[in-house]
Amino acid sequence: MIVTFDLFSALTDSRTGAATVLAELAAERGWPQSGEELYERWDGHNKALQRSAAPPATFHDVSLAAVRRAWSELDHDPAYAERDLARLEESVGQWPLWPDVAAGVTAVAAQHRVGLLSNVDDDLARRTQAYALVDPELVLTSQRLGAYKPSPAIYRAAAEAVAPGPLVHVAASARDVRGALEAGLVTVRLVRPGHVVDETGPRPSVEVTDAATLAMAVARI
């Protein structure tokens, strides 16, 4: 069995990591917004743009467009966007994993091959702390698969990439849970702060609140 994990919700506390950097930028420039507020505005545009994104647009391209939109809405000079995104991308290696991740993923890896299924570009995935916990051959990105979450195409491409072995995906965000389920993947929801299940979509049959119990949950599938 192959088990993939979402990178920036299930494994990485991306909100804390990115908001820390954005708070530094705001302080340096005297912006009134907090790092959290800047993150929310950027992340909202990022997710919206990913719904219609398709290669050859990279995750970097989408993120840059999102920063420009966010800064324009907040009356910040969008000319800052490229350097600000570069600073965010450079900081990704310091974005913290959720506290239960290292032990939880290692336990699953003792029984199954583990990888990532993420919208990010390959080079960005390699910079993250989660990369060291998974099989590099199973780092399944939008750049590699040619589609973006939550499109069913990325989940189907992931299943084809690991065929013939069955694929289980561990997701946390509402759109990732729904996208994986609607594409027909066996999906485990790992509950994380700030993420809920889409009330209008399907619900996963397996939910865990701590990565420490993932190995047991996957074994029961």
From TrEMBL:
Molecular function in Gene Ontology: (S)-2-haloacid dehalogenase activity
EC number of this enzyme: 3.8.1.2
Swiss-Prot/TrEMBL keywords: Hydrolase
Keyword Hydrolase attributed: yes
Cited SUPFAM superfamilies: HAD-like
Superkingdom assignment: Bacteria
Database matches in InterPro entries: HAD-like_sf (IPR036412), HAD-SF_hydro_IA (IPR006439), HAD_sf (IPR023214), S-2-haloacid_dehalogenase (IPR051540)
Pfam families: Hydrolase (PF00702)
NCBIfam families: HAD-SF-IA-v1 (TIGR01549)
PANTHER family: ACID DEHALOGENASE, PUTATIVE (AFU_ORTHOLOGUE AFUA_6G14460)-RELATED, HYDROLASE, HALOACID DELAHOGENASE-RELATED
Protein name: 2-haloacid dehalogenase
